[in-house]
Write a structure and sequence with these properties.
This protein is of the alpha/beta class. It has 11 helices and 33 strands.
Amino acid sequence: MKLEKPKRINGRVPVLSAQDAVNYIPDEATLCVLGDGGGILEATSLITALADRYKTTQSPRDLSLISPTGLGDRAERGISPLAQEGLVKWALCGHWGQSPRISDLAEQNKIVAYNYPQGVLTPAIRASAAHQPGILSNIGIGTFVDPRQQGGKLNEVTKDKLIKLVEIDNQEYLFYKAIAPNVAFIRATTCDSEGYASFEDEVMYLDALVIAQAVHNNGGIVMMQVQKMVKKATLHPKSARIPGYLVDIVVVDSTQTQLYGGAPVNRFISGDFVLDDSAKMAIPLNQRKLVAHRALFEMRKGAVGNVGVGIGLVAREEGCADDFVLTVETGPIGGITTQGVAFGANVNTRAILDMTSQFDFYHGGGLDVCYLSFSEIDRHGNVGMHKFNGKIMGTGGFIDISATSKKIIFCGTLTAGSLKTDVGDGKLTIVQEGKVKKFIQEIPEITFSGKIALERGLDVRYITERAVFTLKADGLHLVEIAPGVDLEKDILAQMDFTPVISPDLKLMDTRLFFDDVMGFVLPDVWGE
């Protein structure tokens, strides 16, 4: 489907207002939106202009929306402004929870809704650039994206099958259909008058190039928001990450900021300045720090891991942060990781890959260890994260990260809902028990398959503030409990199933329960 687009004059890329740019989007277009949480690489002017146009004119209608990563602030930003009945009829997202208004439409069965793992969706877009029908992957087998389960469908009105099970050389794979986008919203910092773009003030690259190539090669319109435009052929060739011939419309927004609500650019986050991190941080002792500290015990020197649950912060406090490398699925490698909606806006980053390449590394088993949160865990070791209490969150990179990492550490509290604990004096005290049990008999929809992990020979641990479990063929084994808790009342009674009690059950390291630096030294090899 070839769309009408403005013409170049003397090779110059057309420069339009965001309002004029979105007038080129026809009904039933397939729009792919670049961006990540907290405003990272988000073309906010274009999103806002499209939302406003629809409110005013009820046009364009029935768009299909593709969003590989989780844009937004978990409220009204990101792609939430596009969550208008009639504007969007179909959505395929890697992550949903950052823009909850889109999730609301899916939960109410007002749009067709699919979820691919984030690391599968981005190469599927790349496949559409090469006019390939899709991709084969073993990522997602045994989870809700497996067609033997939900097939990545998120609600009742979603009927078409986009994912198929295939067998090659007696090995099972999933075939993910590539959906070709024909409109793109992407962003960069600077472009020249021919559309060549650089990302010097941005946090990362994500899959900007992949999206632009896919839309261009499918006869579509690539709209790019930038902060400024310069004379043609003046960008350094190594800094030009988007070639100008891919770009059809440029929108210059001089007020563009690196992140939501901040200064135009934080030079520490952009990588131009190096933050002095020599001073050790003192982190208050609470249940979150307790879990992160215990999770640090699962790290080793020289490991490459995926970041999570404050591991980097407690490692800095212990003085061992330089002994291993943490990565973020969106591309950053090393550095100090920002938590919250702008996750991945690191400082002191050592390198930044495009997101598609980062996931290639993950899918091939490159990670030694990963740290992930959980919503629910069942007696088989399965984990649920993409839906909780009917709320659609999406997988993000969860499935990709946990599918092949050699060691998988799930971190969280044993119960949820107003849980209050006191950590100190060498013990844990349950001040107020959580209202919701997170360890349940059966998970209705699986985001991580314990069975598949065991078949692949992966080492799986579940760390909570009061108990540590490991996964074996006969289910979860309780291997450690916190000093100060009662096994029956505080652990077994707070679970819907009874784990195997290890004959070698021991207390968690008492150093975890004192508000002091542990003096922890990372081992050179994995512990048992």
